[in-house]
Structures are given as structure tokens and as C-alpha cells.
Design goal:
Elements (H helix, E strand, L loop, with lengths): L2 H21 L1 H8 L3 E4 L5 E6 L2 E7 H6 L2 H16 L2 H4 L6 H12 L28 H17 L12 H8 L9 H6 L23 E2 L8 E5 L8 E4 L11
Parallel strand pairs: 1-3
Antiparallel strand pairs: 2-3, 4-5, 5-6
Helix pairs in contact: 1-2, 6-7
């Protein structure tokens, strides 16, 4: 994008940040301290990798369509993902898009989503009886058995097999903001799901892997199934390794 198109978008974000500093200082200070960039795209706001860090990308077209309250809601949503290290933790989950959905179910319980475009909530999945105030990891594993095929490309569309129109609605709306999260997993050396395990990361009995201590940029994980030819590398958390491990 040319500089002339970028400047008014950044000015608009700056104006929103100033308002948040007065009304909701936590979000305001977090936004002011976050690297920001403007990109082409229909999404409004998303987190994207920049080296080993996260930056806030504003989609010029998507941002322009939002009202002022909706812009605030979109920023708060992404800032909560950043607070909970959700995109950085995605490296531990083979089906990254499903992890993004699970994370949305968490953050959308933490603030007023009345103005959030495309917000997905627990009540959208009545068949799973999802409980409030659970971790993203818990929601991920509850969703995986029923909706995993929707994210692995093994269903034909809305209403096919175990899939649900709400999942496809999210993928084409709110899920667009998570399209960059795979980049965080790639930066950690974890690729897309392989054909051998179809994303589960399990190839028979797992063998011990290499423990890696966590840091502020992500949880500590242990590879428990590192099979030749599998780029998923099924992982589990090592409890007590760092502050992220108790996060939602």
C-alpha cells in the first residue's frame, strides 16, 4: 500500500488508542505499546508474526467498514489474544485454525462483544455443552473430535458430515483474523498437518521427544510424537514451566 493510503488508517487507530487510554487504560496502554502496521485485506484487525514477536495488522478495507464502537471491539478482541499469548501458543496445536476458534471462545467471554462483528460464543455449539470459563486448550479438545474435519478439509461444506454451518460462517468471518497464526507455528518449526496422522500428530505409540523450556513468548512443550515424515509433532504442555501455563 502507498503511504498516502496508510496514514489515515494509522491515524484512526491512534485516535482509538487515545480514547482507550482514557476509558480503559489497560487496553489503551497495551495498544500504544504494540507494533502496528496496515495491510491490504478484508479482515479488520489481526495479529501477525514479525520475527519472534507479534504485530497488530489493520486491514484497510475491513477497518473502513467498521463503526467506531466496532473498531474498539475488534482491537480489544485481538489485544486479549495477545495478553493470553494465543497466537504464540498455537505452535503446540496441529490444527491451528481450530485452536483459533477455541481461543475466540475464551476471549469473547472477557469483554462486551455487542459491537464485535462475527463474534462466536459457546451457545453456538449446544451439542457440545461447552462450559464457561474454561481454557482454550479444553475447548480445542472438545471441538476437535466433532469439528476437526472442517479444519482439515475433509468435509464438503456447511452441513456436511459432522460439520456445522456456524463453523463455516466463522471461517469466512471472524476466522479470517487468524489466517496469520500459522506463521507463528511455522516460525517455531511446526508445519501443516501431514497425511499420515491427519493432524492428530499420533502415529501409534509415541516416543519421547525433546523438552524445550518455555519463555514469555510461548509455553514450554514436549514433543511426544516426532515421527519421520510428520510435520505436526504432537505436543503437550510441561506444567509449571512458566507464567503462560496457567493462562486461558
Amino acid at each position: 500500500m502507498d503511504r498516502a493510503a496508510i496514514k489515515p488508517v494509522l491515524n484512526s487507530v491512534d485516535e482509538t488508542a487515545r480514547g482507550l487510554l482514557v476509558r480503559e487504560p489497560y487496553f489503551g496502554h497495551l495498544l500504544v505499546g504494540t507494533v502496528r502496521a496496515v495491510a491490504d485485506g478484508d479482515f479488520a484487525v489481526r495479529l501477525a508474526p514479525i520475527g519472534h514477536l507479534a504485530q497488530l495488522e489493520v486491514g484497510a478495507a475491513g477497518w473502513a467498514r467498521l463503526s467506531a464502537p466496532a473498531r474498539v471491539a475488534a482491537l480489544k478482541h485481538e489485544l486479549l489474544h495477545l495478553t493470553l499469548h494465543h497466537p504464540l501458543r498455537s505452535r503446540a496445536y496441529p490444527v491451528v485454525d481450530l485452536w483459533g476458534l477455541a481461543c475466540d471462545l475464551v476471549v469473547n467471554q472477557l469483554f462486551d462483544i455487542a459491537e464485535l462483528d462475527g463474534a462466536i460464543i459457546l451457545n453456538h455449539f449446544p451439542d457440545l455443552d461447552l462450559k464457561p470459563d474454561q481454557t482454550a486448550d479444553a475447548y480445542y479438545h472438545q471441538l476437535l473430535s466433532r469439528y476437526g474435519g472442517c479444519f482439515r478439509g475433509t468435509c464438503a461444506g456447511a452441513g456436511a458430515g459432522a460439520c456445522d454451518s456456524k463453523v463455516h460462517w466463522w471461517q469466512q468471518g471472524g476466522g479470517l483474523a487468524h489466517s496469520s497464526w500459522a506463521g507463528f507455528a511455522a516460525a517455531a518449526g511446526l508445519g501443516a498437518a501431514c497425511g499420515g496422522c491427519n493432524g492428530s500428530g499420533t502415529h501409534g505409540a509415541p516416543r519421547p521427544g525433546v523438552a524445550r523450556r518455555g519463555s514469555r513468548s510461548g509455553p514450554a512443550v514436549r514433543v511426544v510424537a516426532a515421527v519421520k515424515g510428520c510435520r505436526c509433532q504432537r505436543t503437550v504442555s510441561l506444567p509449571g514451566e512458566n507464567m503462560v501455563m496457567g493462562a486461558r
